[in-house]
Amino acid sequence: MLKRVDVAIALIWDEAGQNVVMVKNKNGNGAYWSLPGGAVEPGETLEQAVLRETKEESGLEVKVKGLHSVREVFFTEAGHHALLFTFEAVIVGGELEVSDPDEEITEVKWMAVDNANELFANLPVKMVISRDYKIPVYSFHGNV
User: Fold this and answer.
1) Residues in CB range of 121: below 8 A, 6 or more apart
2) Rounded-to-10 torsion of CA 130, 134, 138, 142
3) From CA 35, how far away is CA 39, in angstroms rounded?
4) Residue 132, helix vs strand vs coil
5) DSSP H helical ranges for 1-144
6) Which residue of the set 41, 44, 104, 118 is catalytic?
7) Which fold has domain 3-124?
8) pTM (2 decimals)?
9) Judging by DSSP bridges, how do beta strands 37-39 and 30-34 pair with one another?
10) Do 12 and 45 touch, CB atoms closer than 8 A?
């Protein structure tokens, strides 16, 4: 039986719509880049989680504009059934800096969307960042 885990993620564009905020995550002996976000804590809404996780991982205070996408995946090795909620968000305060109390984030920066999408293509759970809202809002990624 897989444990259900909800994950709230922030998609933050720069003013020109060319770059997004990315964070570098520790992963065993390696690392990978992602959008800021993390697991929803008990008693926390998705919105509260994305605000907290974004502040912790990127130093930025954001306001949620709306839902970008929902992805679903079974992380069989970890025993998790994850729902990943990605929200479009805008910066309302803070400074771009690593402020992660869990020390899982090693770097935070603005990254060109094309570069971010190239990095996402190498992850088990694919994501495509696009301003084109014709992309599927929901996708199932199977067993990873």
Assistant:
1) none
2) -70
3) 13
4) coil
5) 46-58, 113-120
6) 104
7) Nucleoside Triphosphate Pyrophosphohydrolase (3.90.79)
8) 0.88
9) unpaired
10) no
Q: Which DSSP string do the residues of 106-129 spell out, in sequence order? A: EEEEEEEHHHHHHHHTTSSS----
Residue 144: is its pLDDT beyond 70? no
Report the alpha-carbon distance of residue 93 to residue 102 in Å, rounded: 22
pLDDT tens profile 44-98: 999 999 999 999 999 999 999 999 888 888 988 888 999 999 999 999 999 999 8
Angle 120-62-3 from CA coordinates, rounded to 5°: 55
Q: Which 8-state DSSP code applies to residue 13?
A: B
Fill in the DSSP letter of residue 65.
E
Domain boundaries, the chain: 3-124
Whether 15 is catalytic is: no
| 85-to-16, 30, 88, 101 alpha-carbon distances in Å | 24, 25, 10, 22
